[in-house]
Design brief:
The complex is a heterodimer of chains A (871) and B (539).
Chain A lengths: L9 H8 L6 E2 L21 E5 L2 E9 L29 E3 L3 E10 L12 E6 L10 H10 L8 E2 L3 E7 L3 E6 L8 E7 L6 E4 L5 E6 L4 E6 L4 E7 L7 E3 L5 E7 L8 E7 L5 E6 L5 E5 L5 E6 L4 E6 L4 E7 L4 E6 L6 E5 L4 E6 L4 E7 L7 E3 L5 E6 L4 E6 L4 E7 L4 E6 L3 E6 L4 E6 L13 E4 L17 E3 L5 E6 L4 E6 L7 E4 L5 E8 L3 E4 L2 E7 L4 E9 L4 E10 L2 H6 L6 E4 L6 E2 L4 E9 L4 E2 L7 E6 L4 E6 L1 E4 L2 E6 L5 E8 L13 E6 L9 H6 L28 E4 L4 E3 H6 L3 E7 L7 H14 L7 E7 L7 H10 L6 E5 L2 H11 L12 E6 L4 E6 L4 H13 L8
Helix pairs in contact in A: 1-2, 6-9
Chain B lengths: L5 H16 L6 H12 L9 E3 L5 H6 L5 E3 L5 H5 L18 H4 L5 E2 L5 E2 L4 H10 L14 E3 L2 H11 L14 E7 L7 H20 L7 E7 L5 H13 L5 E4 L7 H14 L3 E5 L3 H4 L1 H4 L2 E5 L2 H15 L8 E6 L3 H16 L5 E6 L6 H10 L4 E4 L3 H13 L5 E5 L18 E5 L21 H24 L5 H8 L21 E3 L1 E8 L4 E10 L3
Parallel strand pairs in B: 6-7, 6-8, 8-9, 9-10, 10-16, 11-12, 11-13, 13-14, 14-15
Antiparallel strand pairs in B: 1-2, 1-5, 3-4, 15-17, 17-18
Classes of the chains: A mainly beta (871), B alpha/beta (539).
Amino acid sequence: MAASLPGLTLAAVVVALTAGAAARQRAPDRPLPPLPAPGSSREAPSQQATINGVNVEFSMHRAAPASTAPPARSGQPASVGGPSDSSVAGPRFREGDDVVVRFAMRDTTSGAPLQNARPAAWVDLRPVAGQPDAGCKVRVQDLLSGSIFRRAEIDLNVYYVLALNQDATITVVDPLFGFGQTRLLALVALKSPGEDWVLTDDRARLFVSTPDANQVAVVDTTSWQVQAALDVASRPVRLALQPDQQYLWVSYQGAAGTSDPGGVEVFSTATLERAARIPTGRGPHAIAISDDNRFAVVANHDAGTLSLVDIRRLAKITDLPAGAGASSVTFSPLSRFAYVTATGDGTILAVDPDRAAIVARMKAEPGVTQIRFARSGRFGFVVNPARDLLHVLDAASNRIIQTGQVDKGPDQLAITDGIVYVIHQGSEIVRMIPLDEVGREDQPLQIADFPGGQAPFGRGLRPSVADRVVEAPGGNAVLVANPADQAIYYYKEGMAAPMGNFRNYGREPRATLVVDRSLRERTPGVYETEVRLQRAGSYEVAFFLPSPQIVHCFPVVVDPSPARSTERRGPGLEVIGEPHPPAMRVGERTTVRFQLIDPDTRRPAGGVADVRAMAVLAPGLWQERMRAREADDGRYEADLTPPKPGLYYVYIESRARGLSFSQSRPLILEAVDRKQGGSPDPKQAGHADHTPVPSEPRAAGAPVWAPLSSAIPDVELLDQDGRRVRFRSDLVRNQIVAINTIFTTCTTICPPLGATFAQLQRRLEHEAKRVSLISISVDPVTDTPARLKAWASKFDARPGWTLVTGAKQDVDRLLRALGLFTADKWAHAPSTLIGSDAAGQWTRAYGLTSVDTLAGLLERWLRAPAAPIPK
Amino acid sequence: MLFFPARWIYAASAIALTSFAAPAQLTPEETHGREIYRRGTSPSGGTITARLSGPSPDAARSGERRDEVSASVLPCVSCHRADGRGRREGGVVPSNITWHALTRPYGVVHATGRAHPPYTTASLATAITSGTDPAGNPLNAVMPRYRMAPEDLAALIAYVKRLGRDPDPGLSETAVRIGLILPPVGAPVEMRRQIRTALERWFDEANRGGGVFGRRLEPVFIDLPGNPDDGARAMQRIVETERVFAVAASLPASPPPWLEKALVTLARDHEMPVMVPFALDASRADTTAQRYVFAVHAGLRDQAVALAVFADRRQGTSDRPPAAVLVPEDGEAQSHAATSVVERLERLGWRSVQRVTVPIGRPDATALVRLLQRQKIEVILSLIPSPETEVCLTAAAALQWSPVTLVPGSLVGAGLFDVPRAHQARLFAAYPSLPSAGPRVASSREDGTTKSPSYVIAQQTALAAVAVLVEGLRRAGRDVARETVIDALETLDRFETGVTRPVSYRPNRRTGTQGAFIVRIDLDGRTLVPVGEWIEVMQ
């Protein structure tokens, strides 16, 4: 469920904008046929860019209509031409359109789709006339680096937050519109209040159990409409989706007067047909599915049993006695045992599904309820709301190894990569246990906390079976639904309190869920997401791929909708902040600068007399209003003296021009303590180190070939024999060169890269002296020369193929200059850089392409007469 | 007296056998397939090649085979792993190819949208040779197209059907057998006995605590004879008769070279995790074996380098005096250690570092000392056996000369506490951990045996070695294999063994604690007195 953005570290950004600028080229010689894409019938004309050996085809089309949507919108062709900005080419849409944004990527040399990539994209207003245009790369850099300071009109890398409410609704909220400035995207109406929910891995559908309606609602996450309903025997509550997404498991209650005690119904997610009904015993029930999709286990509370179900046959294997009040069940991926808690007996059983046998019985006190495992599967956590306890069990030994006292009525657990969160019925305090402190037998648990709102979580409500705390994409943060507060809080790990919150539009959220909306690979090489175009304007879609680095902006026009113009109450002015606002220091006066734009003329709005600003310290701890003054044409400023460290949101109003505080997008500034030298945010700190962004790349001499944007550094490295080599003078100078990146502990893509180089070397044997094959280790810390030598010998590497490692900073510097740097070695792309140093011409190819293709690229230079060395 | 009818005993043992024997041993065909899966080579000697097609229509049309490589560089196991489940890497997600996953009755829908009906034996053969799934979709370009004899293909598929149900030797549903190599014959009897008792107690406790994923930890004690030929046979027994899953060895800090080599061979040939107390010199040279041999502590070389670093720090801002490294005439490990010491000292700015080879047995100590004294040597790092060091120090004292003398802990014998007092405050040693039993233990001669400090450390280290190995088993999960234990051990980061400094491993780090404590050998109190902090030795 993680957004694609977290994978983009700042380091990657730097590269993208320096070396990555290397080779923006014109279209390749031969036109590429379009990649097959889903629903291509409504395709708008596409735009293409070829950069760094990758062809990116961008298109946008109206989303498939939901069954309940007005027919007028369905399949309407994109309007061509319109009043708003005829100077901009590109597809045109109308405000209010739900569109599918699609990028199809493939390698230019082989035409192979670029799979498993992690692109990011934004829909941003084009620069205002009269404002200097820093260029696409600078804008993308801003969008990536200062994401909290600089937001695009539409961020395609975001997530929506859903609340499962006490009433029969689900609220769908875009939280990144700024705290206090959230946007209610949809209110999904259910037939009866929802009890549990589960989202499909492809994020396309949300299943919601509605016990009072005896149904499971199927919600489409593009239209946010209930698309279908699954009829269930009686009172469906718990939902579970198999890891392979094939079956949805739904618990049902036995109907009075029948012999059916209740159990589970199984639905095919493809057909929404019921595949089986399996009576398991009197509930309430809990369901867990094994990682390998072989077993389902159902805890039957009133029956005190655990039912083991074979998924292949959709038939029960056996019932095992689980103890009085079997209430929660889960699997450990590490032990592959199922664990079930019995509230009445106070026991936790470990069950081996292969042998259908109980393998361990752990004794705790009566009252134990929820059990959950940390991701590694080693440590499990169990709460006891009756005795205010938290237990830790070790799946390796099947024993309880640690126990800690928590607050009143702990009843829910949420576990991220680093922290176990404990929610309590009787308290608003959220307890946190750092995972790296867990596992020291009989040692006290280290427990920290933060307030998850004002009211205890259980106030006035039935406890929900669905999660009240969920991990926010991007990691190190969670969202906490507090029903009585009617609010959802955003908490970042390491802080003393939530960083912000939003009101749930007057409803009590019993559970919350995050829906990642970032680009997702739908078919090989084709990445899509859906979005609603809220406002008319002239936009560009900014696209970024970290590896191989690609930055490009595609123009798009959104026309005003006649239907919406009458109802539109848009702000009378647009507020644009500085791309890099000053870092404020507590107690020091800072000038906040911004520009006002007339949305109709797209020109600066000068001479507005009644401009006022309101600064709010998140999450609403302090606020101050001040009058703003005009500096020059449409530029205004106001003075702010922050009283405390934190994030400040500055809203702007001008009553005369129809701009209210609530309509304005806030400017966001951060204040730090005076003694601190600068921003505590490492991202921001790193920002200062950015290498200057080069201007647009030099014109390429040939369609595919281009000079590198920065000189190849002559760093000193070690080759596979431990000899010191200077990269440029010893390996590259006056050679025909192919460079790939490998590391010796990588077993999936590196051996093929090695095998390809080995074949390439043999193929070009007759020219061995002129060709230099180089493999650079992207894991120089691990890869010693001896390891590289051993690795190369597997492929029978001969002289002329040099493998290099060295000091990490030197290797990283080199990789950046070559545009081959990746922050995460496991995500390293199989790119091969090919070129002639003498000619100063380079190209990038997909490293797993055929040897023919790579050899052809090298032979081009072997055949060519010596080219003049560029100045 | 109890009497059981014979058939009951028979029945009982039959049950025990069946529960232990499941899952069944691989058939000859499956074993054949296993080699193809793991190594990309055919036991029958047939050629197996892999073609990384990429989409190269020209090559496919012409049926050309020039892009083919030996499958040994691209065996199935490198992407799909030993358990068949694969691991995401570099933007490639290898499919789960366990037979269960391939044959789900409702087919498979991949995250990228590629969907196909369940595999059959025939369609799996097509996938392996032609790179298409049962629906005819092309597989990812990273998946090579293999060419092999029909018998090889059949064997490979037979083995694929066993993936995930092919336990390594020493592993059953209910137990995992750990070989525990005791110090070779010749080591003090009492030391061997105490190590064995401590290990037995450790295993008992671990088993009372639930074992590992429901399996009992079964210690298999192995006595090593004192000579190379019997030693080789003992190693063979470990594999063939005892069938242990992994080995933890209690060795002296400088084991005889044949023993080092035997352990390294065991690890390499059987891809078996081998825990040793101190980094072996022999595994430094063998890059294949390196993967499997984990040391708790730094070996002789890193102890010596820690002493060099200590000597340099001790010098403060004053000039670096001439120094000498004493090397035995035929010690390969000592010679390697000396090279590292000389390199390190030169890097630290010591201009005169001599390497002095000392004949072992009857060195002319006085002549040697006179030579060193004439050269104005002020610091001596001794890599010769303890008795020789002792003789030299006695000779030096007679000449009223007391250079700073540094000795790796593994070369400290009890006699070093008895050298002339002239060397008080000038004699230092390096140890990977400080004997927690207290300094007194260092030279006690109770019960007639000689306990050197390394005696205590040997016990601690033997316990640490099993603690580390078992933590590897715990992290690897129930579906454990030798390979996954190796992977799991590589994730240990400052793991607390309870008896040593925290240990860490990484893909290129096989030494748990890489450095040493420096202690002064106090001749008055006959104790070890810690000097300063831990010295970490960077490679």
